[in-house]
Structure formats: structure tokens, C-alpha cells
Design a protein that fits this description.
- It is built from 13 helices and eight strands.
- With about 250 residues, it is an alpha/beta fold.
- An eight-stranded parallel barrel has the order 1-2-3-4-5-6-7-8, surrounded by six helices.
- Helix 1 (about 15-25) packs parallel to helix 3 (about 45-55).
- The longest helix has 19 residues, at about 180-200.
- It is globular.
- The relative contact order is 0.16.
- The chain binds phosphoenolpyruvate (PEP).
- The site of phosphoenolpyruvate has 13 residues, from strand 8.
């Protein structure tokens, strides 16, 4: 059975609640009723307004991070249940900016994934090598370590909820997207890692998205690849016109 296609926008630390509302109102109507899965990972304070204005659409609103505890004395942190109450349906976990700037490890990301699943949020788990690791020929080793460390002990039901995103760090926010062939090679390897951990059947089910400088004119080439089931879009998702184009170009591929 063909896997579903996902286009996920990651707004990072951009857009207030009002700006989120204006953005969603400005999206192409066809995008809001799209047949493919269109997700937006928005800042915490924009989740509620974005979810409210998306009520009559097919858009799915989510968060970009959460804590691994249900609740507790963790000043400045946010819990999955709080995100869910605000209207989030999914959460990005292990984004390279969280790993690099905030020191998140695979073990910590794993705990967050477990908590997200308990709290009813779909985890979108990001993995990817940096430029030096690629140059040194360590890409597969890094991907295997991250995939294993983040996912290894999940049960089958949990794994069925997971979306994996391959995001080479050297391609994020740099304008240097991976070529479709290079991305496909990494995606096929990620799928192989999932097969080793959870079996072939699960590997065929898990959606694997590509992220890293995706633009309207590059998305189709990526989605034509066998193992690329969607895209995670940062910079280009901030403009409703450009994001609409990415969604519409994705719809026409598979
Ligand atoms: C991202 O932040 O996940 C991302 C892919 O960013 P960009 O599209 O800007 O490279």
C-alpha cells in the first residue's frame, strides 16, 4: 500500500498568535482542504490561535518541542498535555537546532518520544548528519546511532505513530538542499535501520520525510523518490504563498 504524503512546516521562533492567524487565512484554499497531510509546527503561544482558525480545514497544528515529564518543577518547560490542550496533535522532537544549540541527546529525545506517545501527540523525530560527519564518511553510522537511540525500545503501537524526518544539518537553512539521489540514499538507509529494529513490515509503514532547504521547485524531484514520503520545510514555510506552492506541487506527484 502506498504511504501517505506529508508536508510539514516548521516555523521555528517566528509568528505571534495574530501572525499565525493571518498566515492561515492567507493559505491557498486548496492547501487547507488538501488530500495530503499538511502539518504546521508553530510556536507554543500560537498553537491555540492556529488550531482555532484551522478548525474547518484539514490542517494539523503541532509544536516544536516538549519536556519528557508529565508535569513538575521544571521552570520554563512545557508538557505534552499542555500542548494537547492548546490544540497540538503532533510534536517535532530531536530537531538539529535542539540537539546542537540546547544539547539534547538521543537518550533525552527518546524519553520525550515516549512521553509524547503517552500524551497522545504524534512524534515527528528528526535525525541527520552534519557537514563534517558527511565529509568523513560517517553519515550511516550517525543515522543508525540516532535512530537506534531515539526509537529502539518503542512498542509496535508507538512506532506506528512515529514520523521520521531525515534532515542533514548542512542543508538546514543554508539553501544547499541535498539532491534527490543523495536524499533517497539516506532515506533507504533509514528504512533499513527501522527494518533491523522493528521488521520489514514496520519499515514499510513508517513515513520518512526529507528536510533541508526545500523549495517549491525542488519538492517534486524529492517526492518522486521511492523512500521519500514528504518534506519538512523551515524557511520556505514562513511565507503562505511559497508554502502553498510546496503543498500543491507535492499533491501532484504521487
Ligand atoms: C528545518 O528547520 O527543519 C528546515 C528544514 O529548515 P529549512 O527548510 O529552512 O532548511
Amino acid at each position: 500500500m502506498p504511504r501517505e504524503i506529508y508536508v510539514i512546516g516548521n516555523w521555528k521562533m517566528y509568528k505571534t498568535g495574530q501572525e499565525a492567524t493571518d498566515y492561515i487565512n492567507a493559505l491557498d484554499v486548496a492547501v487547507k482542504q488538501s488530500k495530503i497531510s499538511v502539518y504546521l509546527a508553530v510556536p507554543f503561544t500560537s498553537i491555540h490561535p492556529a488550531a482555532q482558525v484551522s478548525k474547518e480545514t484539514h490542517l494539523v497544528i503541532g509544536a516544536q518541542n516538549m519536556n519528557d515529564a508529565r508535569e513538575g518543577a521544571f521552570t520554563g518547560e512545557i508538557a505534552g498535555l499542555m500542548l494537547k490542550e492548546a490544540g497540538a496533535k503532533f510534536v517535532l522532537l530531536g530537531h538539529s537546532e535542539r540537539r546542537r544549540i540546547f544539547g539534547e541527546t538521543d537518550a533525552f529525545i527518546h524519553k520525550k518520544i515516549v512521553r509524547a506517545l503517552k500524551d497522545g501527540l504524534r512524534p515527528v523525530v528528526c535525525v541527520g548528519e552534519d557537514a563534517q560527519e558527511r565529509e568523513e564518511g560517517l553519515t550511516e553510522e550517525v543515522l543508525k546511532k540516532q535512530i537506534t537511540g531515539c526509537l529502539e525500545t518503542l512498542d509496535v503501537e508507538g512506532m506506528k505513530q512515529v514520523i521520521l524526518a531525515y534532515e542533514p544539518v548542512w542543508a538546514i537553512g543554508t539553501g544547499k538542499s541535498a539532491t534527490a539521489d543523495l536524499a533517497e540514499e539516506a532515506h533507504a538507509f533509514c528504512r533499513q535501520c527501522i527494518a533491523q529494529l522493528f521488521g520489514e513490515e514496520m519499515a514499510e509503514l513508517v513515513p520518512i520525510l526529507y528536510g533541508g532547504s526545500v523549495k517549491p521547485d525542488t519538492v517534486a524531484g524529492l517526492l518522486k523518490q521511492t523512500d521519500i514520503d514528504g518534506v519538512l520545510v523551515g524557511g520556505a514555510s514562513l511565507d503562505p504563498k511559497m508554502f502553498s506552492e510546496i503543498v500543491l506541487n507535492s499533491e501532484s506527484v504521487k
